[in-house]
Structures are given as C-alpha cells and as structure tokens.
Amino acid sequence: QVQLVESGGGTVQVGNSLRLSCAASGRSFSRANWGWFRQAPGKAREFVAAVNWSGSRADYADSVKARFTFSRDNAKSTVYLQMNSLRPEDTAVYYCAAHTRLSVLPSRAATEYDYWGQGTQVIVSS
To answer: Which pLDDT does position 59 carry in this prediction?
Structure first.
C-alpha cells in the first residue's frame, strides 16, 4: 500500500522557519515528480512548489519563491520543504503529492498527481 506521510508542521512566529518532511512507502519514488500544495481555511488548495523526477528542475509559487526550498533524499524516500521567513499568510494545511510518469517539467496542477499525503498543519502567528 502506497503511503505519503507528512510531518514537521506546527505553530511558529512570523519570520521563523519550519522544515516539512514527506516520507513515502509502498513503492519506489526515487524517480517521481513531487509537489507541495497547501490549503488555508475557506480557500482552495493552491500550488506551492514542485520538482521533476530527476531533481533538475524546480518550480515555486511567486508567493514563496526565495523563501521556500524543495529537496529530496532518494535513499530515504523522503522529500522536504524548507520554509523560511514565514508569514501569517503561509498558514495552511500542507500536502505533498507525487506521480511517477517521469515528466521533465514540474507540474503545478494538482490533477497531475496520483499520490497524496494526509497533510500537516502550519500556523504562523504574528
């Protein structure tokens, strides 16, 4: 059974950092395309960051560019989202997602992803 499990969420003050993790199990994700999405209360799920299967290309939403960084550890089947300089508007449930179709380009579309985690809550207090 394939599972993606996020962790690392919590409550932090404005300007602080958090690192989210997403651990995969049940199949190999060493060549998967990955994405991070978030959903704030009362809002639609939105794209945050994505990376292609080789890790050679990454894409970030304008709102997080230069503050968030996507990384991966294939040996641990885990991807990470380092979030710096957090703002109140970053408050949301964060989800990791993956697909294994070896796309060259990272995808911003949630519909492209076949596997999803359960989400981890991030609250940024001012």
So the answer is: 97
